[in-house]
Amino acid sequence: MSELYFNRPMPHGGRLVERVLTNKKAAKKIVDFCEKVGAVYEIKPTLHYKRGVPVRNVYREIMSICYGFFSPVEGSMTSKELELVLSKRRLLSGWVFPYPLLFDISKEDYESLKAKGIGEGDRLLLKLKGKPFAILDIEEIYEIDPAELADRTFGTPEQNPEVVREKFDDKHPGWVIYRSHQPIILAGKYTIINEPVFKEPFNRFWLPPRKCRELLDEKGWRTAIAHQTRNVPHVGHEMLMKNAAYTGDVEPCHGILVNAIIGVKRRGDYPDEAILEAHEAVHKYGYIKPERHVVSFCLWDMRYGNPLESLLHGIIRQNMGCTHHMFGRDHAAVGEYYDKFATQILWLKGIPSYGFDKPPTEVEGGLQIRPQNMREFWYCPVCKEMAYSENCGHTKEKQKLSGSLIRGLVAEGVQPPAIIMRPEVFKTVVKWWKTLGYPFVNERYVERKEKELEVDVPDLD
Amino acid sequence: MEYILEVFLDDYRLSKIKGTPVEDKIEAVFGGELKVLRVKIGEELKDAILKAFETARIDSRSCITDTPVAFKRALFEEIANQKTLDESVVKAVLDRIDEIKEMAAKEAEYLPPPEID
Predict the structure, then answer these.
(1) Are both A321 and A227 inside the same structural domain?
(2) Distance to chain A for B88, nearest Cα, Å
(3) A405 reaches B (C-beta below 8 A)
(4) How far is B19 from chain A (nearest CA, A)?
(5) Of A79, A444, B97, B108, which cross-links A142 as Cys (Cβ 3.0–4.6 Å)?
(6) Domain check: are A238 and A277 in the same one?
(7) How far apart (Å, rounded) are the C-alpha atoms in residues A433 and A427?
(8) With an 8 Å Cβ cutoff, is A435 touching chain B?
């Protein structure tokens, strides 16, 4: 029987990246040296290139890299690596990776560092909220054209005809993030030297890959299926989780790992705090047993890149130890830039123009996590249940669920029927609505979030 | 292609259209737990709505969603006034676009939470 069991996949790239210095004395020594030579840089948010509102904070990428979510990436990419990621979605080591990860600074900030004699080969202390946070060992400094970076990151209908349907523009939040990058890139490895402390409620859900793997062992989950979320769960999501988890090896998956993406999101999405607690409500109130359901998160300012984002999700959750990953319709998508099933096309056939002539699990340097490609769930008034689109024959009668439909109800103060959103989930939405004064992400939330972040940085002394 | 604007009905809204021709067009969805009116529009009006409201989008059901609450309220008012689900109700709402945008700007800052236990 045991040869039929699935083994936990290795971390992407073969080993988990962990670049966190916990020796405070050593950290203090590094800080003192950097401060003495003026090699200090206060992390700034990336601001929308037109509107000036925050769209990203690179601290989230540094956290996700140093705690191993993005293994085997260890830092800000060099120009050669950037080119390879953009042209083939591969790192210099040959491992698959979908997105550029860059430490970008303005020309003015670069001139100021240069005036202090800081350049390639030097170590730069990165401060967050005015306190020492991480270091960047500068390997290379180069210049980019942010507009070109944005276009090449996502592609075009002409160059990626398999899945790209519309030209990316400033209505696409991911394109805006890259378009808003500063032009000077400091490439090199990051190391966190002063671990930030997560605030409530984030601290309850912080589960970096090593700890997650340990937790899966403790729980005895041989198989675990990952559920990507940037939303509070409606019953359609719950059905997706439950039904996708029926896959497994010789029995259904032992557990469902919900991994929320936490960071700047588009207007109209739910606040991060509500997303985490609403998913927690699913197991707290027994809709899925807590023994089989864990809620966690990864810091990342979502790029909404559908198939590209799904690759990153596969990498994150493989690093966390999941054997399977569920992918639904319009995965991590916004607007109509991509084919609705672009992610599933990638994982079932590959997308040659993105560097995948085969699925990402079959290419060299690819992933080991198994995709579970699901279609959709709808309410069927004939079956009188939430039905799977590929099973239910009542296609004329179907009543489709969508996050947008529920957002519309919520905004008008209409409690969604329990058949589409659990009352406890709705109560969680309302709890954060009362706390934040608004049910969804708006400019005020984004600005407040940028000011406060998800973490506090302790004193190093 | 045809696009849909959905207007959800609570007791107050149901009372406003009681006895009108629109009442016959109420649809009950999700096991009868939700009542809704559906206004069907073409490309031109769809484009005008998407242009007017940055948050607006089209979901997998071809429904135009994430429009401001002020837009939805105005749409219901026009339906109740004109007693029809024709495109004319949307045109009438778009004629009031400045007023709606002003209300929508306030909505972007604050929406009153419902009182639930």
Answers:
(1) yes
(2) 22
(3) yes
(4) 23
(5) A79
(6) yes
(7) 9
(8) no
Which of the listed residues A165, A196, A227 is the one where a domain comes to its end?
A196
Is the link from the previous residue into A72 a cis peptide, with omega within 30 of 0?
yes
Total number of domains constituting chain A: 2
Could you tell me if residue B92 is inside a domain?
A: yes
Residue-wise pLDDT for A404-458, tens only, equals: 788 888 888 778 888 889 999 999 999 999 999 899 998 899 999 999 999 999 9
Q: Which domain holds residue A339?
A: 202-376+422-452
Structure tokens at A346: 């990638």
pLDDT per residue as tens digits for the range B75-105: 999 999 999 999 999 999 999 999 999 988 8
Structure tokens at A344: 């599933």
Task: Kindly report, residue by residue over A22-53, the tens digit of the pLDDT.
Answer: 999 999 999 999 999 999 999 999 999 999 99
Q: Does an H or E element contain A135, and which? A: strand A131-143
* Cβ atoms B104, A420 nearer than 8 A: no
Q: How far is CA A330 from the centre of its chain?
A: 15
B65 to A335: CB separation less than 8 angstroms, yes or no? no
* Residues sharing a CB contact under 8 Å with residue A252, sequence separation 6 or more, in sequence order: A245, A246
A313 and A329, same structural domain? yes
A81 vs A91, A101, A252, CA distance in Å? Answer: 6, 10, 39
Task: Give me chain A's average pLDDT, please.
Answer: 95
Question: Pairing between strand A131-143 and A123-128?
Answer: antiparallel
Is residue B114 assigned to a domain? no
Which single residue is written with the structure tokens 């054997």? A323
Q: What domain count does chain B have?
A: 1
Tally: H helices and E strands in chain B: 5, 5
Residue B7: which domain range? 3-107
Q: Which amino acid is at A414?
A: V
Q: Closest to B10 (Cβ–Cβ): which among A381, A414, A416?
A: A414
Model confidence at B12: pLDDT above 90: no
**Domain of A45: which CATH number?**
3.10.400.10
Residue among A319, A327, A356 at smallest CA distance from A343: A327
Q: Would you call A437 and B29 a contact, using CB atoms and an 8 Å cutoff?
A: no
